[in-house]
Design a protein that fits this description.
The complex is a heterodimer of chains A (241) and B (409). By secondary structure, chain A is of the alpha/beta class. Chain A has one domain: P-loop containing nucleotide triphosphate hydrolases (Rossmann fold, 3-Layer(aba) Sandwich). Chain A is built from eight helices and ten strands. The radius of gyration of chain A is 18 Å and the shape is globular. Chain B folds into two domains: 185 residues, no CATH class; 181 residues, no CATH class. In chain B, the strands form three sheets. In chain B, strands 5-6-11-8-10-9 form a six-stranded mixed beta barrel. In chain B, a hairpin with a 2-residue loop joins strand 9 and strand 10. Classes of the chains: A alpha/beta (241), B alpha+beta (409). Chains A and B meet through helix 2 and helix 3 of A and helix 1, helix 10, helix 11 and helix 13 of B.
């Protein structure tokens, strides 16, 4: 079966005036459906640039990136917006919720831009909100929610359009360790029960532990790409007690 | 449509978040639209009053005055020497096709008496056509006719002011008044006409048959003498033709040599009035233009606030673009926001402009006139200001780079 994500010889170079800054220097990898990948690396290693390209927020300088066989090359700004809207769910470190906007309306946002009719929107939002366990917080504003709850709203928003992948950029960066564990439990459940593909940037090994596969970036290249043995073992133990 | 209503909701929410700022931004438009509405109302009020006065005077009128006299090197004004005759008037209406009606006039100020009341007024001996020329109707009774002119009968028509002063509540028709001790039967009362352009009470007058005035009241230095002939041309396009032909005809009848001055003068009143109308037009245009400037300043205020708003909400815009908002969606959102600001300002401005105009006209007694067109125009104009000045900030927002926008602190 064709992999969900195919990346081949990906290069990204930023131009700062006359100076060329290579952010990604020839990456190739593929990610299958239902994988849970942790992308690690020091700051400046190119992992954020990589995520931006995976999320169709940025275009590679050269090389190829295919999501379900679709390339972002030569697509207009609005066509890229449509791909993001349909196929990608974003989760950010700073939650990035709209302030003075209720949980329901935050979650509803991608559906509005997808022109989904109101009745259908309501149904999809409800489903998504219950998946992250936010029932009873539907009409709260972000300022009335805890950090963990805010990140759950962000996850619900990312899920609402039933995207092909969830892209999470340091999802626990602003959370304490207990809340981080809760969020990771949500990720694991989504990945295990609903088969959702998750790609998550993190610099904390503790968090990376929850993923099934770890990729380590250094100076714009992949230096490590391995299955999470410990986790695999743990899950096996869970399955066969 | 989904996105339109969503954008509208978002815009309204964004505006309620910063209520003070929205209100102050709107204030510019409110003042602008209010000023435009008030100034247009004042301008069209002035124009309407002038048009009314022109209509009350009658249209397409030429006035022929008899000549000025010179005595011992001293020149007197027009009408001081009687040079015009009834025959001149008859010749004008018979020989010049551009002329519709004539009303020769011999007038004087007299004391009129009824019972124990008396009143000083202008008594005009004239033709009944004067009522046609000045578009003047009768409130009661009848006008005089040819047989009254032929017989020099002692009948008269009273202006409203004279009737009120002499008779109070009594119906004057059929009563006898004395003008210069000569008894006259009142046969009609004229409808009120109000003040003329120069503030004279047009209703303070009495009309009697010309022949009666000549024989019984004012006397004549020569047969058929009149002081003024009022002429009505067939239409505005005949005015110049009539004026030239009357001048030629009168010079010929008065045997004036080519190198001699006229012993009469012809005045075109419509011209005087239309120049007054023109200056009213210029005034309302000027007022409107000045008011429009404040509307434009209000628009710049909107643009300023929208630019600030776009900068403040860079992150929000980034989120929207990341989750799939197209350029059009963002453009629409901010355009609707500035449109809502300007249209709400426009609506409030209309209310304030209308209220302000009432206050202004109550204080200054200026005539004012509202037209629904002016109000619609101001509303439409305020909407255009919103779109025009909102477009640049909205476009700026719609073209933001999502990566940079998301990183914006």
């Amino acid at each position: 079966m064709e992999p969900l994500i195919q990346v081949k010889d990906l290069v990204k170079v930023y131009h700062l005036g006359e100076v060329e800054i290579p952010a990604i220097q020839g990456i190739s990898l593929s990610i299958d459906r239902s994988e849970f990948v942790a992308v690690m690396g020091a700051s400046g290693s190119g992992k954020s640039t990589f995520m931006n390209i995976l999320g169709f927020l940025d275009q590679p300088t050269s090389g190829q990136y295919l999501l379900e066989g679709i390339s972002g090359e030569r697509l207009s700004r609005d066509e890229l917006a449509e791909i993001r809207n349909r196929k990608i769910g974003f989760i950010f470190q700073g939650f990035n919720l709209l302030s003075r906007t209720s949980t329901l309306e935050n979650v509803e946002l991608p559906l509005i831009y997808a022109q989904v009719p109101a009745a259908k929107r309501k149904e999809m939002v409800k489903k998504s909100v219950s998946e992250v366990g936010l029932e009873g917080r539907e009409h709260h504003y972000p300022s009335q929610l805890s950090g963990g709850q805010q990140q759950r709203v962000a996850i619900a928003r990312a899920l609402v359009n039933e995207p092909s992948i969830l892209l999470a950029d340091e999802p626990t960066g602003n959370l304490d360790s207990k809340t981080s564990e809760e969020i990771m439990a949500v990720f694991q459940r989504l990945n295990r029960d609903l088969g959702i593909t998750i790609i998550m940037i993190t610099h904390e090994p503790d968090i990376a532990r929850y993923a099934k596969r770890k990729i380590l970036f250094k100076d714009g290249a992949i230096v490590h790409d391995e299955a999470n043995v410990a986790l695999a073992a743990g899950m096996e133990r869970e399955a066969n007690p | 449509m989904t996105t339109f209503f969503a954008s509208l909701r978002i815009a309204l929410r964004a505006l309620t978040v910063n209520k003070m700022r929205s209100a102050l931004t709107m204030l510019g438009i409110i003042i602008g639209v209010g000023a435009v509405i008030a100034m247009i109302a004042v301008g069209s009020g002035a124009k309407a009053r002038i048009a009314e006065q022109i209509a009350s005077m009658g249209s397409n009128i030429l006035i022929i005055l008899s000549g000025s006299s010179t005595s011992g090197g001293m020149r007197f004004g027009s009408g001081t020497v009687p040079t015009l005759t009834v025959d001149d008037a008859k010749a004008i209406v018979n020989e010049i096709p551009a002329v519709r009606y004539i009303a020769p006039n011999l007038s004087g100020v007299s004391q009129v008496v009824y019972g124990n009341q008396n009143w000083s007024t202008v008594v005009n001996g004239t033709y009944p056509e004067v009522l046609e020329i000045r578009e003047w109707s009768l409130d009661s009774g009848r006008s005089f006719g040819q047989q009254d002119l032929d017989g020099a009968t002692k009948v008269c028509l009273l202006g409203k002011t004279v009737a009120d002063n002499l008779f109070g509540g009594i119906d004057p028709v059929g009563q006898v008044i004395r003008i210069k001790k000569v008894p006259f039967t009142v046969i009609g009362v004229l409808a009120p006409k109000g003040q003329s352009t120069w503030g004279q009470d047009q209703d303070d007058t009495i009309f009697v048959p010309l022949t009666t005035a000549q024989k019984r009241l004012f006397g004549m230095t020569f047969p058929g003498m009149v002081r003024v002939i009022t002429v009505q041309a067939k239409g505005p396009e005949y005015m110049n033709e009539a004026e030239t032909q009357i001048t030629d005809l009168l010079r010929q009848r008065h045997r004036i040599q080519p190198n001699q001055d006229n012993d009469f003068s012809v005045r075109n009143l419509t011209e005087v009035m239309s120049s007054a109308e023109q200056s009213a037009n210029v005034m309302s245009l000027l007022l409107g233009a000045i008011a429009s400037i404040s509307l434009i300043v209000g628009g710049i205020g909107i643009m300023n606030i929208m630019l600030v708003s776009v900068t403040e909400r860079t992150r929000e815009i980034g989120i929207r673009i990341a989750v799939g908002a197209k350029s059009r969606d963002i453009l629409l959102q901010f355009l609707i926001e500035s449109l809502v600001l300007s249209m709400m300002g426009g609506a409030l401005g209309i209310a304030i402009g209308v209220a302000g105009t009432f206050v202004l006209s109550a204080i200054t007694q200026w005539p004012t006139l509202f037209s629904i067109q002016a109000i619609l125009l101001a509303f439409f104009f305020s909407g255009s200001v919103g779109v025009f000045f909102g477009f640049y900030p909205a476009r700026k927002a719609s073209l933001l780079n999502p990566i940079e926008a998301l990183r914006y602190e």
